[in-house]
């Protein structure tokens, strides 16, 4: 069996209970197994990968609960796995046009709870590219999704750079964070 065949036959753990007060899905939604395979093996969509390792947040992804959580989030919004997979295909097309590779490893996931008690999911795809190019590619990707009307509102894909951030660039942004000088009114009540 070739490497690609082995990747296509990856077993995905069955969905677990969706959490306190939430019931487990009665059946797996169409395309969920394929979506989880792509998240764990992004090379299935993006192709060749860089030798740089992908970056991850401090909280590791618990792949045992990922299928049930994705299904719960997508079903509430009426989003399909096919629309999310299509968004990944668009992301791959954008990266191929620019010759940018993803970094080696699974996609990092963040489950986000919002003020209105709804949930969404952000998939962080690490690129072997500098921060400026990563930002530009993200903007192009979302423009392309919008033009194709393929915006899965509860499942977001973001590009992150594996390159170190040049902290000297922060000095040019200090004015954004200099609250003492900018946000306090002078004694006459006028902001300066």
Task: Draw up the topology in text.
Layout: H1 3-8, H2 32-40, H3 43-46, E1 49-53, H4 66-77, H5 81-98, E2 102-104, E3 108-113, E4 119-127, H6 131-148, E5 155-161, H7 174-177, H8 179-182
Parallel strand pairs: 1-2, 4-5
Antiparallel strand pairs: 3-4
Please characterize this protein's 3D structure.
By secondary structure, the protein is an alpha/beta fold. The chain has a domain of 129 residues: 2-Layer Sandwich (GMP Synthetase, Chain A, domain 3), CATH 3.30.300. The protein contains eight helices and five strands. Strand 3 and strand 4 form a beta hairpin. The longest helix has 18 residues. The protein is globular, with a radius of gyration of 20 Å. It starts with a helix and ends in a 10-residue tail after the last helix.
What would the keywords be for this entry?
single chain; 192 residues; GMP Synthetase, Chain A, domain 3; globular; disordered C terminus
Low-confidence stretches: 1-24, 180-192
CATH arch. level architecture of the domain at 27-51 and 61-164? 2-Layer Sandwich
Task: Compute the average pLDDT.
Answer: 79
Q: Report how far apart the termini are.
A: 69 Å
CATH class of the domain at 27-51 and 61-164: Alpha Beta
Could you give the order of the helices and strands?
HHHEHHEEEHEHH
Q: Strand count, sense and closure of the main sheet?
A: 3 strands, mixed
Report Rg. Answer: 20 Å
Helicity, in percent? 25-40%
Q: Give me the CATH fold name of the domain at 27-51 and 61-164.
A: GMP Synthetase, Chain A, domain 3
Our estimate of the beta-strand percent is 15-25%
Which structural class do the helices and strands define? alpha/beta
| Overall 3D form | globular
Strand order of the largest sheet: 3-4-5
Number of helices: 8
Total number of strands:
5
């Amino acid at each position: 069996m070739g490497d690609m065949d082995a990747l296509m036959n990856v077993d995905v753990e069955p969905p677990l209970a969706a959490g306190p007060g939430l019931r487990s899905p009665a059946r797996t939604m169409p395309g969920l197994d394929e979506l989880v395979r792509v998240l764990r093996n992004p090379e299935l969509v993006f192709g060749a990968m860089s030798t740089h390792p992908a970056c991850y947040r401090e909280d590791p992804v618990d792949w045992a609960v990922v299928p049930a959580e994705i299904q719960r989030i997508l079903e509430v919004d009426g989003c399909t796995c096919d629309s999310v997979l299509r968004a990944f295909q668009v992301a791959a097309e954008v990266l191929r046009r620019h010759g940018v590779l993803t970094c080696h490893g699974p996609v990092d996931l963040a489950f986000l709870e919002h003020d209105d008690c709804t949930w969404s999911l952000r998939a962080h795809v690490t690129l072997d590219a500098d921060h400026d190019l990563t930002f530009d590619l993200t903007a192009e990707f979302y423009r392309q999704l919008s033009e194709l009307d393929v915006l899965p509102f509860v499942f977001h894909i973001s590009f992150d750079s594996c390159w170190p951030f040049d902290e000297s660039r922060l000095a040019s942004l200090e004015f954004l964070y200099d609250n003492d000088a900018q946000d306090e009114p002078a004694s006459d009540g006028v902001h300066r």
